[in-house]
Amino acid sequence: MGKAPDRVKGLSPGARGFAALAVSVFGAYLAGMTQPSPILSGLRQRCGACGQGRLFSAYLKFNEACPHCGRDMRAADTADGPAFFVGFGVLILTAPFLILIPMSPLPGALKAGAILLLGLVITGLALWLLPVAKGILLNLQLHHKAGQAEFERKDD
After folding, report:
1. Is the terminal CB of the chain with fewer CB neighbours within 10 Å at N or C?
2. CA distance to 39, 101, 105, 122, 131, per residue, from 97 (Å)
3. Cut 0.90: pTM above it
């Protein structure tokens, strides 16, 4: 099969073989693509056209154009979609704790501390995921050339 990539050196022999196979198959799949995947580029917060340029000039503020290939980033608007998806995702992950902590047999001070800590986790998780979701949605919109809905007027 050849030499295993550096990414799989620390694994057991069986896992190393599977990981090397997965990396080579996935790499061959990606090599056949003419453009980088918009989702993978969004996860890396890179331009969906070239995969190199940074999407953001500041936290949640897009560059006007890709610094590497010049792609216009103003052609799409993610609006509040990323906040919606991140908010609901974080809620789904943390809602069980919001229900179980008040019902736990812990003393009141520990319950208050646990709820405060959970609030910090929720805030941190949302702030960490928001740029990722925004990058993915922008790259998907630009990749699929999404635009404003337009309706044809039929003059009778």
Report:
1. C
2. 30, 6, 14, 11, 25
3. no
